[in-house]
Amino acid sequence: MSGSAVGIQSSMSALPPGPMLDLVTALHELYRAAGMLSTRAISDTIKDRDDLPDTVSHETVSMMLRGTRLVGWTKVECVVRLLAERSVNPVFEPSACVRRFHDLWLHVKVHDAKEDSHVTVDLPLSMIEKTASLIPSEARNSGKIRINDKDMDVAELRQLWDDVKNRPDATYVTVDEKDSKVRIAKRGDYLHIIAQDRKGHNENVEMKIPLEVVSALLSGKGDEMNVGAAVQALARRGEGELVTVTGDDETVRIWVASASETR
Predict the structure, then answer these.
(1) Domain enclosing residue 90, as ranges
(2) Exposed site from 13, 42, 74, 184, fewest CB < 10 Å?
(3) Contacts from 194-197 at CB under 8 Å and sequence distance 24+?
(4) 180 - beta bridge partners?
(5) Rounded distance, CA 217 to CA 232, Å?
(6) Residue 147 binned pLDDT confidence (cut-offs 50, 70, 90)
(7) Residue 263 has pLDDT above 50, yes or no
(8) What is the predicted pLDDT for the residue at 250?
């Protein structure tokens, strides 16, 4: 075993129990089956392939195997597919392996036109779900929403939602002011929230939240939001758009997909 392989193995053993260790353990199963290729060989081979969706530096491969960095899905897919193709003992079927790792991912893209900056976040829903329990109780208990200058806490939101969720499709909240407009409506299986801010930045926000996700989020006790249950419900719902923000200075997109998106 090479020195780098020994270092990778020892780094993995230092990881605490949790979603990162689960991901790295599954990746190491493939890594060993493929003969523990060097990280540079993995990187170079991926770079030479036209059929793979991304490139992965040998430093990133090393960090993936050590569990010191969470990377986007396309890079994970490249490494998983290559290792599965090179697997000997045992032999893994590449497409099946990709599906095994193909957790639903939450994607966030932000473009600030004023600063010409881009921010991209890709996180597995399973990781968000498992880490939801780490959110301080004060944060889970502090959820409020402001509707027409009135703050509503979680208990009030839950009571309102219990009354609305089984009613026919309709627009239930309308706020139309000089500088802003808000519409909250129930349409099919989704809660639609559309807001327009015409003051300063001319910003438009559109949210499309599955009804079961709202119910799960409000399923906690008292003023606590049940983030873990909401993520589980989101995973059951599958792929879809969640939030779109367009404005003079920036655009934001949040969506769920089983792979990294380019659009």
Answers:
(1) 3-101
(2) 13
(3) 197/247
(4) 197
(5) 10
(6) low
(7) no
(8) 80
139-143, 166-170, 172-176, 239-243 — which one is most confidently predicted on average? Answer: 166-170
Q: Total structural domains in the chain? A: 2
In a domain, 263, yes or no: no
Q: Structure tokens of 191?
A: 């809660």
Q: Which of 8, 227, 16 is nearest to 134 (CA)?
A: 227
21 with 40: CB under 8 angstroms? no
Q: 225 and 116, same structural domain? A: yes
Instruction: Kindly write down the DSSP assignment for every residue of 172-229, as one continuous string.
Output: EEEEE-SSEEEEEEEETTEEEEEEEE-SSS-EEEEEEEEHHHHHHHTTSSTT---HHH
Residues 103 and 47: their CA atoms lie apart, in Å, by 24
Whether 97 and 124 map to the same domain: the answer is no
Band of residue 262 on the pLDDT scale cut at 50, 70, 90:
very low
The two three-digit tokens of residue 35, written as one number = 């003969």
Give the closest residue to 105 by CA, choosing from 251, 252, 250, 242.
Answer: 242
The reply to whether the predicted model has a pTM over 0.85 is: no
**Is residue 39 helix, strand or coil?**
helix
Question: What is the C-alpha to C-alpha distance for residues 148 and 36, in angstroms, rounded to an integer?
Answer: 60
**223 lies in some domain:** yes
